[in-house]
Amino acid sequence: MLEFREVQPDKFEEIWPFLEEIVKAGETYPYPMDTTFEQGKSFWFAPGARVYNAYLNGLIVASRYLVPNKPGLGRHICNTGVMIDKRFRGQGLGKQMMRFAIEKSKELGYKAIQLNLVAVTNKVSIKICKEFGFEVIGELPGAFFLRQEKYVNAYVMFKKL
After folding, report:
1. 96 near 132, Cβ under 8 Å?
2. How far is it, in rounded angstroms, from Cα 33 to Cα 29?
3. Which residue, 146, 142, 148, 155, is CA-closest to 27?
4. Residues 58-91: tens digit of each pLDDT
5. Kind of pairing between the strands at 150-160 and 135-146
6. How far apart are CA 89 and CA 54, in angstroms?
7. Domains in the chain, ordered, with CATH?
8. Cα 28–97–16 angle (5° rounding)?
9. Which residues, 6+ apart, have CB-to-CB distance to 57 below 8 Å?
10. Model confidence over 18-53: pLDDT tens digits?
C-alpha cells in the first residue's frame, strides 16, 4: 500500500536520484539533460507547486507535483508531473499516482488537469492518461527534442474534473 505525504523542498534529496536519472535520459521531461540538483529542485518545487512523495514500506518510490497551469484567471486548471524510481516501474505505480493526482486535484479545488507537453513517444504515460479519461486536445509538431537527437511531436492532454 502506498503512503502519500506532502513534502517541502528540504525533501528534494530523496527525489533527486530518480529525477536526475529520468531527466538525463531526455525521453519524458523537457528539462535540460544536464540539470543540476538546484535546478531540479526549482523545477519540481516551482512557485505554487504542491509536491507529494509516495512511499512503499517507508521507501520513496515516486514523486508527483500539482501546480496551477497558469496564474490568475487560469489557476483553476492544474498541471501535474510524476517521476517513478525505475526500480519500481511496471508494478502499477503509474496508475496509483494518477488516481492520487486526480483525487488530490479535486480536493484542492481544481476544475481540470492539463498536461502541456507529453512526448508522443511516451507510450506508457499516454496509455495511463487515456485510461483515466484524459483526451488529446492538441498535437504540437516537433515540440519535444527527444534525447537531444530528434524532434518528435507532443500532445496537450486534458481532463475535466
Report:
1. no
2. 9
3. 146
4. 999 999 999 999 999 999 999 999 999 999 999 9
5. antiparallel
6. 13
7. 2-160 (3.40.630.30)
8. 55
9. none
10. 999 999 999 999 999 999 999 999 999 999 999 999
